[in-house]
Design goal:
Two copies of one chain form a homodimer. Chain A is an alpha/beta fold and 462 residues long. Helices cover 37% and strands 16% of the residues of chain A. The radius of gyration of chain A is 22 Å and the shape is globular.
């Protein structure tokens, strides 16, 4: 096995029996299979606050909140206590024929925190299933309402909504779908906002979402076959933290209402204050028909997901038992009490007085400090909403020419980051920051500065 | 709201503020929407061993292990300790670029406990995703191997493999799929074993799986387009605990090998000693290409799932980063350390000396005691494998005429069971027993006797 030149611990790490056993047995998600043999995985032993600690005691800042899930920091005393308390009563019980207090509390909190039209909560385990449930509810709703032809969805180019085959069928990224295109349901891809390279030459701060025309055309042409439109509101995460203005979402809401099409918000990555408000829909007075949440809901402790919808949808399922008009869908661990208990404590922490103000302050610091990234000669754009910051690196700043994929500059920067105590995970040429909210101002400064150093170390050699 | 005549606590329960809040906010899985308004849900407050306790202190035996997930009993001291210990180190960390000891231990244990050909473990969160991953790996494998036409799966009539749209496309039950048939991938349904009503007039104890002809025909006709065949080995759970002999699986293995088609085992419900051996494949020396596990893997504590496969599959994904031949699939909470820690302790408990013998003993007691169910005038068949027992109720014992669906006799028996301290959840006309292994012999006797009483209370009125 080849040891990589950049990671100082490589040769030593590759003799670690745990890492060798991992290499022999485990197939890691979204990982080119040869990578762990060349660049050893980080063997993380414990975590605290914004830091991960490997088995040699080295510390790494969890810059991307462990795939965007951790909100309040690792090993949080109050979350640990909530988990322990629930464990002492009951880890899990099934959720058909049975209910329990942690789920009842959580559903009430979520309904209180989301727009008024969202009145029903359906529980599941992960983001993909939350999306699958929204799609299936929408399909069945139209069937029950005498519009069986409405059996397709529109989705945005570069959009990401999970990778089970239903969720994948509304993903607009070839990276995820190209091996499976022939078995996916026939949905409609729509060119969405592309603010950095706006074809109208406008700025996201001042435009009127002129790019919405493409979606309007789709709705005009296909509304008879369209069940719904699914979007990641404000930030297309896996696309590289592509950010677009709320006016697009307002237009989408109005157009879908006019055309009798559901609006599905996937706030799995952006919910729970990531963009500055508890939810995008609630912060911007928007009213999706379905809202999918997961990731941060347990502050990165446990898998849990919910799909919220409105009474107009729910009531359509009130048929009798015999005609099976009800929604036949379940997951064994729906509304897992341990996960619900941690979610309740997460929401309690987010709702504490002063929390959102302190986050706004941190977001401001991050924006300010990130100015130094804009000085880099490879900065195509630094963009930020709330606690999500993203630097798009380009080879030519004027022409915004991307670095070629085969250079893997993101992966090289990731490895440089490790040597500087950062766990980054760039999305292609986009280095992004999505730290736990527990990050302090001086840590924000360290994060941005070290990321800049890592980028320079890689790109100055190009 | 109408209060139901059978449940004594109804009127009182419907004034419970928690239950009313549940009724207002929550959409329960696989539940006709009007049911919770008519028959109050059980508000479970805590659980211990094989018992659930409601908020009034009433005790219910968890006869079906909370949807088949709980193996070792609720609130198990050793599982609680394992969870606490892991929590003190780290609840979760991402699983790309990173690994951790609980996952490494678990993968090694699973590979040790399964047939030799299974050498790689891919982690996810729930049963549906474990199946989706097997389907996607199979599809991509054939594409990478120059057999792009192999893009369909064969599945058994009445088979159940989860309800995300990919998993649903290999389910053979109209109850689950009929609202979504028009968007599912085009797979092939095959008539499988139907031992109670065997068209060949044979017995499952002595036949040679003559019914395999249907599958053989499918393989003969469609092998060029078939990527794989998926089955629930030995027991089709959601179909009503339909049981069939291992000789069917042996024939399937041989035929698929001859036709170059993958075999996918969904042992989500039957794994971890449910049928008497750790896994069906290992106990019967069978070698599926993919093995999906979930449910009992954490003894009913937390959502976790794995898909195991063999090196012949894994090696096909070893392309370079640039051509994206790797498997692009992930879930945020893949290999959640808390869940992995509980899974490791679960497996340690299952592997303790004497465990499998004690289970065999309990299974024997259950089989013996269940004789009294065979005396019931509505007994079409009592069947049992390991710790899964099922009584199929029929209106006419000679002709095996089923009770009509609209009678909902299963639901009536469920309600009678509650009054006798049993949490049953019949599958249509099939009353089944799948208790946690912690059940004691006298509790087995109580369970069977009370179930018999509940059945009589309902059917004597018919």
């Amino acid at each position: 096995m080849v040891c990589d030149r950049l990671h100082p611990d490589n040769k030593k790490a590759m003799t670690d029996p745990d890492l060798l056993q991992d290499l022999k047995n485990i197939w890691h998600p979204c990982t080119p299979l040869k990578d762990p043999a060349i660049t050893p995985l980080l063997l993380v032993d414990r975590a605290s606050g914004i830091y991960l600690f490997d088995n040699k005691g080295n510390r790494y800042m969890d810059v991307i909140s462990s795939w965007w899930v951790n909100l309040l920091g690792h090993n949080h005393p109050r979350l640990n206590r909530a988990l322990s308390r629930q464990m002492e009563k009951m880890a899990h019980v099934m959720f058909a024929g049975i209910t329990h207090e942690p789920a009842i509390r959580l559903a009430e909190r979520l309904i209180q925190g989301t727009p008024d039209n969202l009145t029903r909560v359906f529980f599941s385990d992960n983001g993909s299933t939350a999306v699958e449930i929204a799609l299936k509810m929408s399909l069945q709703y139209w069937k029950l309402s005498g519009h069986a032809k409405k059996n397709r969805f529109a989705y945005l180019k570069d959009g990401y909504h999970g990778e089970t085959l239903g969720a994948l069928s509304v993903c607009g990224s070839q990276l995820f779908r190209d091996k499976f295109d022939d078995v996916l349901m026939s949905n409609v891809e729509v060119q969405g906002p592309d603010c950095l390279r706006c074809p109208f030459g406008l700025k996201r701060e001042s435009c009127q979402a002129e790019c919405f025309d493409a979606m309007q055309n789709t709705l005009d042409t296909h509304s008879e076959s369209l069940a719904g439109v699914i979007v990641e509101p404000l930030v297309q995460g896996a696309a590289g933290m592509k950010m677009y203005p709320p006016v697009y979402l307002k237009k989408l809401e109005d157009a879908c209402k006019a055309k009798n099409v559901h609006v599905i918000y996937d706030e799995i990555a952006v919910g729970f204050y990531r963009t500055g408000s508890m939810f995008v829909c609630q912060g911007h007075e928007l009213h999706p028909t379905f809202l999918c949440l997961s990731k941060g809901i347990t502050s990165g402790y446990l898998p849990l997901a919910v799909t919220l919808t409105e009474n107009s949808v729910y009531e359509a399922f009130q048929g009798s038992f015999e005609n099976f008009n009800w929604f036949v869908h379940s997951h064994s661990y729906s509304a897992n009490p341990l996960a619900c208990a941690v979610a309740n404590e997460t929401l309690a922490l987010l709702e504490e007085p002063g929390f959102s103000e302190s986050l706004q302050q941190k977001s401001g610091v991050m924006r300010e400090v990130a100015c130094q990234l804009e000085e880099l000669p490879w900065c195509g754009e630094y963009r930020q909403i709330g606690m999500i910051g993203a630097l798009e690196l380009v080879r030519d700043r004027e022409k915004l020419t991307p670095f070629p994929v085969e250079k893997r500059i993101g992966f090289e920067i990731f490895k440089e980051g490790l040597t500087r105590g950062l766990f980054l995970r760039p999305l292609g040429n986009i280095v992004y920051f999505m730290p736990p909210y527990a990050i302090e101002e001086d840590e924000i400064k360290t994060m941005i500065r070290s990321a800049g150093d890592s980028i320079r170390a890689v790109l100055e050699k190009e």
